[in-house]
Structures are given as C-alpha cells and as structure tokens.
Amino acid sequence: MSSLLNQSAGLVAFVRVAEAGSFSAAARNAGTTPSAISKAVRRLEGDLGTQLFRRSTRTLSLTPDGQAFFNRVAPLLRDIQDSADAIRPMGGARGRLRVSMPGELGRLLMEPITTKFLAAHPQLELDLALADRHVDVIAEGYDVVFRVGTTVESELKMRTLASLDMVLVASPAFLQRAGEPRSVQELRELPFVRYLFAGRTLPLTFRDGTTITPRGRLGLDTGFGLHAAALGGMGVAHLMKCTVQADLDRGDLVQLLRDHPLPPLPLRALHPFGKLTPARVRLFSDLVEQEIRQLAAA
C-alpha cells in the first residue's frame, strides 16, 4: 500500500462525495467532472484495499469501512482548511459553516445574514439551526453557537458579543383582564408564560436580587413560543427587549415594572477551534455582534 499522503486528491474527492451524496453533486461542487471524482475515489479504494461506497444505479451509500474512514478523515481535512483560513490575513468565509442560535435572534438577523453575509461570501454554504436548546457543539459538529445567558463549556473558546436588556411584557388584553402589576408582589400573583429549560421552569431574578418562580398553565422552551403566547394574551413573558421592541412600539405588548429592572444577559459566541479561529466563524460572529449591538441600541 502506498502512502495516503500521495492520495490527497482521492481523500478530498472521497469526503466531497460522502458529504454531497453523489459523484455528480461532488463534481459540481468541485468544478470538475463526475468521471474525475469517480476515478480518484477508485484509486483511493485500490490503495486501501477496501470498498468505501455501495454503488447502484439509484443510490450511493458508505460501507461500514467507508463510514469509519470518513469519520476519521473528514475532520482532518477540515482542520487543514480551517488552519489555512485562520492565517490568511484577508481570507474570506468559505466552505460550510454550521451554526446554532436562538430562534428569536435568528428571526431578527435573517435579513442581514442573507443580504449582507451570504452575499459577501459566495463561496460559503451556511447551515443555520434555530433552536433555544444548548446543542453539543463538538458531538453535533457545529462550528459556532450563540447563547444568551450563563454558559459552562470550559473547553470551548468564548467571545462576548453584546449585553442584552431583558423585559417583562404582556398584552393589553391580558392586562385588562388581570390588571397591571405595580409591585413584584402583585407580579407574583399573575400567570406567566413559563420558560422551560431542560424541562424545568427557570426562576426570574431582578437586578436587586429579588427572585420569583413564574407560575402559569403554559410552559414553552423557545423564545419564539413565549413571544407568540404573550401576544396571544396567555400571560407575562420574560424576553429579550430587542426581540419585542417592535411590539412595544406598536402597543401590541406593554413593558411591566419599569422601576424594577432586570439584569442584562450576555450574548456569547462559542466555538471549538481555540486560537486558530477559521475566517468563516470569525466573520459570521463579527456580523452578529454588529447587527445585535445596533438592535440593542435602538
């Protein structure tokens, strides 16, 4: 068996086919022909002495050996590309970027993500998961995640992007029925739309240290759900001010207890790359920081 270091073209072709799902799609992505991709993979299989793909006229799938090889090789090739991107002084974003961020932030940032970031980086493919749950960055293969509030992953590189004001809001219709609270004690008596994290209702702490545990018939695990339920008159919701500012301006929601402020929460970007941050991660984080700071200041 010859050294795999002489099979760089075959290794790249193999990973591209596995990720794209076909020789033709991999060829389009690489700007070459399906025949060239197929021959490179065949040479690699000959060197390895095993079949990496199950081929038929309709389907293409990895063999068990192919899957095991892909799991080892794909991260190595990606690390090589990331290292090159990190040291290019004027490098643009390229390749595939896998991101997770809270759904309500994704809603606010979708326009600049598409019209600014993707337009400025045509060689980049973005996979954006909008979810409030804390994904496993390494196990699930994310490049960067954005989280609001406390974070505990010490093995990840962390960057604070902004400080987000938090507010308590409710709809005018709800307040007409239940009455607007004038104190924290009166607030305790009102039904909340409860925010669920890992299946439990999170307590609510004011800047002076006063803590209450929200009660209410409806618990939700996303900011989007809390926002919609508050607009529907289901109760008081604890939300990022930037996500409800338009509703406050229109009068669709009312901010409660302005004289009892809540502590702001940090928005942070977390990634597993250490000091050699790939350009795609750095540039996307830059955009999120710039846009969120503008929204938070509005």
Summarize the structure.
Residues 11-63 form the HTH lysR-type domain. The chain is of the alpha+beta class and 298 residues long. The chain is built from ten helices and 15 strands.
Explain this structure:
Belongs to the LysR transcriptional regulatory family. Keywords: DNA-binding, Transcription, Transcription regulation. With 298 residues, the protein is of the alpha+beta class. It folds into 3 domains: 4-87, Arc Repressor Mutant, subunit A; 95-160 and 265-297, Periplasmic binding protein-like II (D-Maltodextrin-Binding Protein, domain 2); 166-255, Periplasmic binding protein-like II (D-Maltodextrin-Binding Protein, domain 2, 3-Layer(aba) Sandwich), CATH 3.40.190. Helices cover 43% and strands 22% of the residues. Strand 3, helix 5 and strand 4 form a beta-alpha-beta unit. The longest helix has 24 residues, at 64-87. It is elongated, with a radius of gyration of 24 Å. The model has no long low-confidence stretch (mean pLDDT 88).
CATH topology of the largest domain: D-Maltodextrin-Binding Protein, domain 2
- Major sheet: size, sense and barrel closure? 5 strands, mixed
Count of DSSP strands: 15
The share of residues in helices is 40-55%
- CATH domain class name of the largest domain: Alpha Beta
The second-level CATH architecture of the largest domain is 3-Layer(aba) Sandwich
Low-confidence stretches: none
Relative strand content: 15-25%
What characteristics describe this protein?
298 residues, alpha+beta, Arc Repressor Mutant, subunit A, D-Maltodextrin-Binding Protein, domain 2, three-stranded antiparallel beta sheet, 10 helices, 22% strand
